[in-house]
Amino acid sequence: MNTKNNQRFKDNEKRFEQALLQLSKTMPYQKMTVRALCEQAHLNRTTFYAHYYDIEDMIEKMEAHMHEDLLARFDTTNHALFSPSSFTTFLHYIKDHQSFYRIALHTRHIFPLQQGYDPLWKEVIQPLCIQNGITDPDEMTYYLIYFQAGFTMALRHWVDTNCQMSEKQFAQLLILCLPSIWQEKKNLPKEVPAY
Length: 195
Prior knowledge:
Arc Repressor Mutant, subunit A; 9 helices; disordered C terminus
């Protein structure tokens, strides 16, 4: 029986994920249909709906799994917050999975970094703002929105251009784009090298 989390269920999920990535090579995400995904995966619609509500739900679940995988690979003890090494580790992962992120980043409309919102707010944004004398929650929210939107759109452009800029160069550029009150002067590159 094909119950949730048994091997057949997991195999079918993998087939749908591979079908999504394969279809993304020939059509934009916005034109994908459940029917096209099912045909590509050689599975039926009933099987699709046993796994997902719709294509957006599928992308969200894929992203959640990738987010967990990324966090498992990320060693926070060796990386200072907003340092070139912390961004570079993240960017290596994005580049290795750019087919998926090309789709996922085009679905962003509100609060681009939905996964990890609470930790980002509590462990990063609030402490950085408070450390710099910003205690008004509304003002902190603007910093969060600015960071999320800017970071996501920069990342989206980098992926859309096939990650032409090296991870190291892009990491340095991202650091330069941080609000000045968050930048650690010792981590700032003097300039972003040409690529």
